[in-house]
Amino acid sequence: MRTVPKHELVDRIARRTGTKNGTVKAVVQNFLDEIIAELALNNRLEFRDFGVFEPRLRQARTAQNPKTLERVHVPAKRTVKFKMGRMMSKKLNKGTTSHE
Q1: How many angstroms separate the Cα of 35 from the Cα of each of 13, 20, 24, 41?
Q2: What is the mean pLDDT of residues 82-88?
Q3: How far apart are CA 12 and CA 55, in angstroms?
């Protein structure tokens, strides 16, 4: 596994579409900004076959520091759940068996 940075994806899209890198970078960044803005408004985002982004509230809880065994309060926080869509699931699980 390797990490693919945003600029590498921008370069690939620019080559495939014959569009300038700067234009593709702006479109990709605006797209990501819109996703963040919608999630901040507590909206669910659905991209058919790709997946669904859904904001969630993780409840406050008490945890324990494993070194000191001290109890610590962990405040509630908002997170994002992602559920992959059908096409992504097929591509990621291609060649794997389900009877293990």
Answers
A1: 19, 23, 17, 10
A2: 95
A3: 30
User: Is 60 exceeded by the pLDDT of residue 98?
Assistant: no
CATH number at residue 67: 4.10.520.10
What pLDDT does 100 receive?
Answer: 46
Q: How many CA atoms lie within 13 A of 78 on its CB side?
A: 9
Please list the residues that pair with 8 across neighbouring strands: none
Name the domain count of the chain.
Answer: 2
The set of residues, in sequence order, having a beta carbon less than 8 Å from that of 60 and lying 6+ positions away, is 73, 74, 75, 76
pLDDT given at position 13? 97
pTM for the model = 0.79
Q: Are residues 1 and 35 in the same domain?
A: yes
